[in-house]
Amino acid sequence: MRSIYGFGRYFRFLLRRERAMSAVWIVCVAGSALLFAGMYPGLFPDKESMLTMATTMNTPAMVALMGPVYGLESMTTAVIMAQECLIWFVMAVAIMNIFFVNRHTRVDEELGRHEMLRALPVGRLTGAVTTLFGAFALNAVISIITALGFMMLHIEGVTAAGAFSYSLSMGVQGFLFAALTLLAAQLFSTSRGVTGSVFALLGLFYTMRMSGDMAGNALSIISPLGLGLRVYAFYEDNFVPILILLLEAVVTGTAALLICAGRDLGEGILPARKGREHASRFLRGELGLAWRLSRGTIFAWGLGLFALGASYGSVLGQIDAFVNDNEMIQKILNTVGSYDITNNYIVLILAIGAILSSVPVMLLAGRIHAEEKHGRLEQLFAKAVPRMKMFLAYITLALLESFLSLFLLTLGLFTAAWSTGAVELGPLLKAGFAYLPALWVMLSLSVLLVGAFPRLTALVWVVFSYSFLMMYFGRLFDLPEWVHKLSPFGNVPQLPVQEFRLEPLIVMAALSLILGAIGVVRYGRRDIG
């Protein structure tokens, strides 16, 4: 027990630090889950509309996005809701846990906070155990609130068992990613290495689930994201996957604690790569330094976006065959008229990929603020390094990344779908690059916040979250057009389904230029730190 001495006081300290951030996550995750669930009775008022939606979800594109369809013989509103929403809320909870654990482990070590806390009467493992327990408590609170909220909504098909199978699947997968992040914090010596590795693992698990669900093999069950969907919430309410995932989390967390007990503070088990004895000539400039510090982010996101495009492109050839064999889908398409399912699938994938492509752009634009918070800019600007040129170097990289991200996304989609003959590279690149002005708006918002409102830099992620929610749920809930256009991505012409319109792209490009210029000027005038 000496290794976790002071656990109670440390946990109260963690609660004090997390009271605002955790409250925001609880409200956002649980509140969003209940808000969307409450809309479903109006969307699907009868069995016919439910069966139509369920059959639509059984297309390869939708199975790749959300997982396998179940309960067709006894479809209810709750089953439809669970199949459409669970995977996305699991992803949100996983991201929450990654940031939570990394913030209280590797980030605190980098900033020297753990060294100060270790000087107090606390055990060697107190910090790690408290963080893991805090993540467990946070997931438990979200799961309980979500389950109780479902039971109060009076949605057709909602039962206590279904509500808890849904919410516990969400919570236990979040706890598993908390344990994985704690393990990564023992392996890597930097916070970027921790988040990068766990996010890569999250992407790998999603790809495994998607491939396994499409092929109908065990690869999906090996992935925690696929196994968690096998609870079949509000239908079978199978709690076995939840127990398996909980066991995986306990084993992973135990392994992380065992490693933590034997490693040096501030170090990782995996040794950092030794650099050159003398720096290259390229590091003499601001752009070279920015590239050197950011190249890992650029490479990782480039590879991930190419893999994402290739994953979705690989199922493109199966869509038409599915429609030809499905009378229900044929009836749906005949009521719509000249509906091209392949092109609409491409539009959906490019919209998802474009929103995700804005992440590395925003990270690069905000990188200088991260260096500022860590106290490294004072040492840099003490030399003959103009702060404006350093900021512009990161902005230049972010601009180049906007082109690179969309190019690799569309190239991955084309490479995997080329054999089907359903797509051509030229039109596909045109459709992908149409999202460039939207990415520039996200970039300029990051620049504006870093330059003028450095304490509010997290607001850009609110815009990102809103854009993703509108892309996925906006059409589903038939929200007004102006609600979609509040997101920069909602103003992009959806090629090749819609006609190309240059006006909104020019407006967004001009807006991004103005916001970016204001941010750069304000950054040059404000105090550092």
From TrEMBL:
It comes from the Bacteria. The chain crosses the membrane at residues 20-43, 78-101, 122-155, 175-202, 214-233, 239-261, 298-319, 345-370, 391-414, 434-453, 458-477, 505-524. Keywords: Membrane, Transmembrane, Transmembrane helix. This is ABC-2 type transport system permease protein. It comes from Kineothrix alysoides.
